[in-house]
Design brief:
Blueprint (H helix, E strand, L loop, with lengths): L5 H8 L10 E3 L8 E4 L4 E9 L6 H14 L3 E13 L4 H18 L2 E2 L3 E5 L6 E10 L14 E6 L4 H10 L1 H6 L4 H8 L8 H9 L4 E3 L5 H13 L2 E5 L7 H10 L13 E5 H13 L4 E8 L3 E5 L5 E4 L6 H10 L5
Parallel strand pairs: 4-5, 4-6, 10-13
Antiparallel strand pairs: 1-2, 2-3, 3-7, 4-7, 8-11, 8-12, 9-11, 10-12, 13-14
């Protein structure tokens, strides 16, 4: 999967939404994770996300990744609707495995599957799931991707490329073994899937007054930071040495010649909040077992500046291509030797 460029989204997608309903507080927009709909005393938060870059844990990932995008609004996920597209070569065993994963993950976040669609689809060679998730805010407050304010600290949880590391360990294990990566590292990398959910930390930071939150998926940490910066019309400056990267991720990325900061990063939460609250937020997250780091600051201007360890300054645009998608393309083209 490759995201459409923001220019195409603005031209052909965001402008074509049918009848404009005044109860829609937030509809389709660059960088925004979920729709927000006014339903009376609360807001309904709704999100849909496709899972196309994973195979082994696709059902489990589909639930958690969709629920993450509801939680970053400050809403607890409650209802799920998956569309499951399976290759014609699949049978009962594969259906059982995928739906079992969905059921397990839904129980973990306290959500229920309330509908959806499942089919065997001609012309595909691996499964795809598009998962819709919905929830209600506790009150009339919600958090946006576009809410970053000048002077905010930029906070990041866990380590860059969290989801990507687990996918590389599972779906690119043979490629990594050929390049000298040890089996033990692959086993540890596969365990990163357990870090995918950001529901607890997102709900905590929403209560602590986060101005913006985002779950970086395609394009990795840099993609997520860019979306906050450009959606908020602010300048975000971050420092590479402050961005945590796990040793497993570093080794996998070096072996496959990819940038860990552009590797799909579900499981990471990026938030901006007033600088005076940053230390308390980091301590509160660590108290619930979630590591967090302050990696940058929000300034006047617009865009994303990355201070590389090498000493260079990289200006990051609105669109950041994902390294995992590049790997899949290279494999399918027979170029991943």
């Amino acid at each position: 999967m490759v995201k459409l460029h923001p220019d195409l989204l603005r031209k052909y997608v965001f402008s074509r939404v049918g009848h404009r309903d005044p109860s829609v507080v937030v509809g389709p927009a660059y960088g925004e994770d979920s729709a927000i709909i006014d339903v009376g005393p609360q807001y309904l938060v709704a999100h849909i996300d496709p899972i196309t870059g994973a195979v082994e844990n696709i059902g489990w990932l589909a639930v958690h990744i969709a629920c993450n995008d509801v939680a970053v609004r400050g809403a607890e996920p409650r209802w799920l609707m998956p569309t499951i597209l399976l290759p014609e070569s699949y049978g009962e065993q594969e259906v059982d495995a995928i739906t079992k994963q969905i059921d397990q993950a839904a129980r973990e976040v306290g959500a229920m599957v309330v509908g959806g669609h499942t089919e065997f689809t001609p012309g595909i060679d691996r499964p795809f799931i598009s998962m819709a998730a919905m929830g209600l805010t506790e009150d009339r407050r919600y958090v946006l991707t576009s809410g970053a304010e000048v002077g905010d600290a930029v906070l990041m949880t866990k380590t860059a490329g969290t989801e990507g590391t687990s996918i590389l360990a599972e779906d690119f294990s043979e490629d990594l073994l050929k390049r000298g990566v040890k089996e033990e590292l692959l086993k540890r990398g596969a365990e990163f899937i357990k870090r995918i959910s950001v529901v607890r930390e997102a709900l905590l930071l929403a209560k602590m007054g986060a101005n913006s939150m985002h779950d970086p998926t395609e394009g990795g940490v840099l993609g997520g930071l860019a979306e906050i910066a450009y959606a908020s019309n602010k300048l975000i400056e971050v420092w590479e040495e402050k961005i945590p990267i796990a040793e497993e991720t570093k080794i996998f990325c070096k072996a496959l010649d990819i940038d860990p900061l552009k590797l799909i990063s579900s499981g990471v939460l990026i938030a901006t909040l007033p600088h005076r609250k940053a230390a308390d937020a980091v301590n509160a997250l660590r108290a619930i077992g979630v590591e967090a780091s302050v990696i940058g600051v929000v300034k006047e201007g617009r865009g994303l500046l990355l201070n590389r360890v090498s000493g260079g300054v990289e200006v990051v645009g609105e669109y950041v291509g994902d390294e995992l998608m590049r790997l899949w393309s290279e494999r399918e083209a027979g170029k991943l030797g």
